[in-house]
């Protein structure tokens, strides 16, 4: 058992414990912190197989950005499992999910074990040249993919802003609207974008009833669809 | 690196994928579901990187055709693919969390089973 095998087993154990902690932690913030450990372990595995740039990107993106965004979303959506216990059907759903996941995992594992993997005699060890990755990203082979993925990211971020805007879907109940947010006009006056930016002196008072009206309409429409 | 290590890496990736799938199916909190999907994506990327690490490098690789570059070309191809995985994961989590926040405005609960329209 050489050093690489020891490192592999240690990182795999950390990753496994992190994922189990993510699945089992009763509080969601603890779950996210446990998942950070799993992400870091996978980054360590990337270092082990020589993908050093990828390891750095994983630490930045997964352990950093994605986790922080998840924590933001958790803070913005309080009142989850800490308040209410799981309903009765949840246990059965968990059993079915375990069955499906175990089936998929067993299928992949058996196919991995049944395949006679053989390391190519021309494979090389050691870290991959990061400059080669950069050249490849801008080469003929991956240049178009690279440009498309930048467009995907741009569209996703613009879409995220549009989705999460408060004007897109007003807060239900209207309790937060008057004090927490600047006066937001109802969806109708989109032809005057200046009103969005500059709250005038007589802004909040006349617009509040209209906004509540829009909310009632929205909630009523939702109920109507449901029944 | 040995063949056993490749099998170990692939099995670990399969395990991570299965646990992520279990989390995506069984968890109730929407943020937890999204993070479980992220875990599945990362497990797939780990498998791609591990596999391409064991392919013949450089100009000896016949399957990839004429190679414009020297060096560990096969591993670099796998890592570039995984970089695209990372970008897709970032896009997915941005959209997903924005959708969670938007859904929370309509129905103030982060649990996916309570988000349907029935009371």
Automatic annotation (TrEMBL), chain A:
Ranges of biased composition (kind: Basic and acidic residues): 209-227
One GO MF term attached to the UniProt entry: NADH dehydrogenase (ubiquinone) activity
Region called Disordered, residue ranges: 172-227
Enzyme class: translocase
Main location: membrane
Domain of life: Bacteria
Transmembrane segments annotated in the record for this chain: 6-23, 28-47, 53-76, 96-117, 142-164
EC number(s) stated in the UniProt entry for this protein: 7.1.1.-
Record's subcellular location: Cell membrane
Keywords: Cell membrane, Membrane, NAD, Quinone, Transmembrane, Transmembrane helix
Membrane protein topology class: Multi-pass membrane protein
Catalytic activity: a quinone + NADH + 5 H(+)(in) = a quinol + NAD(+) + 4 H(+)(out)
Chain intervals with Pro residues compositional bias: 180-190
GO CC term (a single one): plasma membrane
Membrane among keywords: yes
PANTHER family in UniProt: NADH-UBIQUINONE OXIDOREDUCTASE CHAIN 6
Family named by the database record: Belongs to the complex I subunit 6 family.
Entry function: NDH-1 shuttles electrons from NADH, via FMN and iron-sulfur (Fe-S) centers, to quinones in the respiratory chain. Couples the redox reaction to proton translocation (for every two electrons transferred, four hydrogen ions are translocated across the cytoplasmic membrane), and thus conserves the redox energy in a proton gradient.
Entry protein name: NADH-quinone oxidoreductase subunit J
Lineage: Bacteria, Bacillati, Bacillota, Bacilli, Bacillales
From TrEMBL, chain B:
Keyword vocabulary terms for this entry: Cell membrane, Membrane, NAD, Quinone, Translocase, Transmembrane, Transmembrane helix, Transport, Ubiquinone
GO MF entry, a single one: NADH dehydrogenase (quinone) (non-electrogenic) activity
Catalysis: reaction(s): a quinone + NADH + 5 H(+)(in) = a quinol + NAD(+) + 4 H(+)(out)
Family recorded in the similarity comment: Belongs to the complex I subunit 4L family.
EC id: 7.1.1.-
Record's GO cellular component terms: NADH dehydrogenase complex; plasma membrane
Mode of membrane association: Multi-pass membrane protein
Tree of life domain: Bacteria
Function: NDH-1 shuttles electrons from NADH, via FMN and iron-sulfur (Fe-S) centers, to quinones in the respiratory chain. The immediate electron acceptor for the enzyme in this species is believed to be a menaquinone. Couples the redox reaction to proton translocation (for every two electrons transferred, four hydrogen ions are translocated across the cytoplasmic membrane), and thus conserves the redox energy in a proton gradient.
Signal peptide: none
Assembly behavior: NDH-1 is composed of 14 different subunits. Subunits NuoA, H, J, K, L, M, N constitute the membrane sector of the complex.
Organism: Hydrogenibacillus schlegelii
Pfam family, one: Oxidored_q2
Name the UniProt record assigns to this protein: NADH-quinone oxidoreductase subunit K
Subcellular location, record wording: Cell membrane; Membrane
TM annotation in the entry: 36-55, 83-106
Lineage of source species: Bacteria, Bacillati, Bacillota, Bacilli, Bacillales
Biological process annotations from GO: ATP synthesis coupled electron transport
Enzyme class: translocase
